[in-house]
Amino acid sequence: MAVTVETLAKLERRITLLIPATELNSEIETRLKKLSRTVKADGFRPGKVPMSVVAQRYGYSVQSEVMNDKLGQAFSDATGQAQLRVAGLPTVTQKDESPEGQLAFDATFEVYPEVQLGDLSAVEVDRISSEVTEAAIDRTVDILRKQRRTFAQRPAVDGAAESDRVTIDFEGKIDGEPFEGGKAEAFQFLIGEGQMLEQFDKAVRGMKVGENKTFPLQFPADYHGKDVAGKEADFLVTMKKIEAQHLPDLDESFIKSLGIADGSNDGLRADVRKNLEREVKFRVLARNKAAAMEALVKVAELDVPKALIDSELERLVAGAREDLKQRGVKDADKAPIPSEVFQPQAERRVRLGLVVAELVKINNLRARPEQLQAHIEELSQSYEKPAEVMRWYLSDRQRMAEVEAVVIETNVTQHVLGLVKINDKALPFDELMTA
User: Fold this and answer.
1) Whole-model pTM over 0.85
2) Which of 134, 157, 179, 174 is nearest to 276 (CA)?
3) Rounded CA gap, 342 and 310, in Å?
4) What is the pLDDT of residues 46-93, one digit of tens each?
5) Does residue 323 surpass a pLDDT of 90?
6) pLDDT band at 156 (very low <50, low <70, confident <90, very high)
7) What is the 3-state secondary structure (H, E, C) of the chain?
8) Are 55 and 32 in contact (CB under 8 A)?
C-alpha cells in the first residue's frame, strides 16, 4: 500500500499509520500467555495463575507495550517506503475515525533538510601560524623550576618582596561592616604572581613580620564576588611570616629529575621545544578549524529541524548540570537552568553538524584508518608510556569514535581552506597561548 505523505511546513510531515485490530489483539494475547508461565499470585502455584487474573493485572501494560512496538514498526516501514530521513522522534496521536477492523494514527515528524553548499571561493579566511621562540622555552624552563621550588623563612628585619611567600591575617570592611570572604587567618600567597588583586599585592610589599597595615582597596566592577564588585573596602593586614623562594639550580641532577636521560641543558630545551610545538600545533589547528567552520556555515543554506535543536538543548543543559556537580554545587540536579540561554549555541551546533555531514558525504572526507592511527600516535606522544595510551584508545569504541570525529573535522578544515581566499597571519606565541 502506498504511503501518503502530507507536507505541513518546510520540514514537517505527517503520515497515517494503520494497525490491524486482529493483529494487535493476537500479539497481546500471545504475550499475556507467555507472561502467565512465570507470573506469581497469592493462592496459585507458579504457572497456574488464570489468564483472567493475568489480564487484569498486566493487560494495560502489555497492551501499551505491544501498541508502541506496532506503531514503531509501522512508522519505520512507512518512512522507509517513502524514503524519508526522519529527524527526531515523531508525535503520534490516534485518529477519531478509523477504517473497519483497524486503528488509525497520525504521525507528525520532521525530516532532514536539503543542504545547499554555497561558493567558498569568494570567502576570506585568516589562516594563522605560530612558532616556538627561545624566549618561550626560557619561560617554560622557569615554570618547571618554580614547580619544584622550596621556601625558607626570611630574617625578621627583611620586608616582603617579589616572589616571597607570605602568611598574613586580614580583615576587610565596607562602610565599616565586615563582608563574607573578607576575613582570614594564616592566609598564604605569593607576591607578584597574580594570586591577589594588584592593590592588595602592592600594599603587602615591604611589610615586616609583626607589622600591621591598613589600606583601601577598590574591587573591580567585574569582580567575581558580586556582593563586593565595584565597591571600596578597608583592609587591616598583619604580617605573620615571610619566606623567600629558592629555585633549584639548572644542573644535571635537576634536569634528570625531569626525565631527560642525558641531564644536559640542550636535551632539556629540545624536549621542551618538542612539547611546546605539539601544543602550538593543536592550538593553531583549533583556531584554523573554527575559522573554516565559520566560513562553511556562512555560505550554506538550509532549514534546521526543531527536533534536533531540542535534543541539542537537552544535551547542553545536561552538560551544564554535570559541570555544576563537578564544581560541588549543592542540588545541581534541581538548579534552574533556562534552556533558552543555550538556544543560539544549540542551533549553530546543529546547523554546523548538518553542513559538515553533507560536505563529508559529497567529497568523501571520512577518516581513513591510517589517519586514525597517526592521530592516536600523535596524542600518545605527550604521555610517559605512549604504547599504553594507544592501547587505551584502540580498545574502546567510544574513544575511537571521538578520534574519528576529530580527524573528520581536520579533513573538512583542510578541504575548506583549499577553496577559500587565505590570509596568512603569523600569531605571536604568547598571544596564541593566552587566547
Assistant:
1) no
2) 134
3) 10
4) 777 788 887 888 888 888 998 999 999 999 999 999 999 999 899 999
5) no
6) confident
7) CCCCCEECCCCEEEEEEEEEHHHHHHHHHHHHHHHHCCCCCCCCCCCCCCHHHHHHHHHHHHHHHHHHHHHHHHHHHHHHHCCCCEEEEEEEEECCCCCCCEEEEEEEEEECCCCECCCCCCCEEEEEECCCCHHHHHHHHHHHHHCCCEEEECCCCCCCCCCCEEEEEEEEEECCEEEEEEEEEEEEEECCCCCCCHHHHHHHCCCCCCCEEEEEEECCCCCCCCCCCCCEEEEEEEEEEEEEEECCCCCHHHHHHCCCCCCCHHHHHHHHHHHHHHHHHHHHHHHHHHHHHHHHHHHCECCCCHHHHHHHHHHHHHHHHHHHHHCCCCCHHHCCCCHHHHHHHHHHHHHHHHHHHHHHHHHCCCCCHHHHHHHHHHHHCCCCCHHHHHHHHHCCHHHHHHHHHHHHHHHHHHHHHCCCEEEEEECCHHHHHHC
8) yes
pLDDT in tens, 124-140: 999 999 999 999 999 99
The average pLDDT across 367-394 equals: 89
Domains of the chain (ranges; CATH) run 6-111 (3.30.70.1050), 150-246 (3.10.50.40), 262-434 (1.10.3120)
